[in-house]
Fold each of these.
Amino acid sequence: MIILKHLTKKFGSFTAVDDLSLTVPEGEFFGFLGPNGAGKTTTIKMMTGLFTPTSGTITINGFDVQKEPLKSKATFGYIPDQPFLYDKLTGREFLYYIGGLFEMPKKKIKERIEALVEHFEIGDWVDKRTEDYSQGMRQRITITAAFLHGPKTIIIDEPMVGLDPRSARIVKDSLKQKSKEGVSIFMSTHSLEMVEELCDRIAIIKDGKLIFLDTRENLHHHKSRYDGRLESVFLELTK
């Protein structure tokens, strides 16, 4: 579960996120939309502990991110918009490193890596150094790492960067299955088609402010005012 209460982030006189309050319960697939510069990535960086809020609170799976950062981080997986890997490690070595950070037993790490390597179809290159990876390969290793410790929540900033159609389908199906298993998914993306396909609820922010929040089912009511497309609703609300 994710709870954001009156979350605000200022950089000098500029307000990037302005009094944002949201709750994402267990098992919900939540889509977080907005134009460039709306505050999406800033929000995610506060949720993951990379930025400190100017005011407000963030609670993830019962832990305050500011007061109990290690406990909160132990419960979620994070997929950033730009994958960061250690270039001299192989993909498998990187996954072992991540498992160690989460203090997983070595036997469990090995079992999980073997299962995920097969699931995400990365066996052909997981033992190559990551410095030789394409953008899509780097993204798939990052996604695999986010799944490794069995998180209760997955936080995603643009999950499909560089992925080919088959890899994208595997990732979509995997995320949807996780939400069915009770994992809360918080996903920021520019792919409106992906949001319509996967998300249970959708939020749109503009200039750091929440301007839309509703279920996918109720979205049809809003779409009927335009031409039946989420794209039209999004463009009208953010123009």
Note: The first helix runs from residue 40 to 47.
Amino acid sequence: MQYKMLVLDMDDTLLTDDHQVSVRNQKMIRLAQEMGVYVVLASGRPTPAMLSYAKDLGLDQFGSYILSYNGAVITAMQSGEVIFEQSIQPQHVHELYDFSVAHQVHLVTYLDGEIIATGASPYVEIEAHITGMPLRIVSDFKATVQKPVVKCIMLEEPSYLAKVAQTLKNVCSHKSITTSKPFFLEIMEWGIDKAASLARLAAQLNIDASEIIAVGNASNDLSMIQYAGLGVWVDNVEESLRHHADVIVASNNNDGVAEVIERFILGEQIEA
């Protein structure tokens, strides 16, 4: 199989634990693009928290793409054009806020390049650190959020958040709900996940699912792992998910992405 698209989760997959792209991964990603393979960064991160990585990897030079907010936004890197966006209406964000207050978890969203929260917590600080975006603490969340947003996150200690997640799924069937880290419960509009947006992009580029490799490590990657012709976990994948992939490669700290390219893209070119 000659693969035409390589889709990469970022945190704990492409990025090392200190949020860097290794030299080997950088080299292989550029080489894949030189061979005509689209490289797509697919992350729960907001768009601003992905752009510098995408440019460093040459996605803008090779006409590649990013899927941000778990697929709620698709951006063409060469032109900077947003080619798809699906938002949550303010009244639904307000309902999520009421739920978060009732269940004593933090809620954040994103407006005008900032993270919006009603208070600080270690988990809110982690989100600010990962994204590098300014954190704005507001006294009135509902009054602040008066226009659509693309994603919300509930944040709390993992074992408690898992219980909250089950309750939320039972009462909020009109939203897509997933986890990117054990302490991040991510909420998007119904029908939004990485696979759904990947399918939209693939159709636009006339690429079949069988021609796609997807690489991830967490629950919010599962849909694209199952959608792609070759679904790959890095070795630090959540244990409960290991059996869902076609292949498991080295961990995020040991150049797993480079291994994928060398085995399934570069290897094919050599054989051809």
Note: DSSP finds ten helices and 14 strands in the chain.
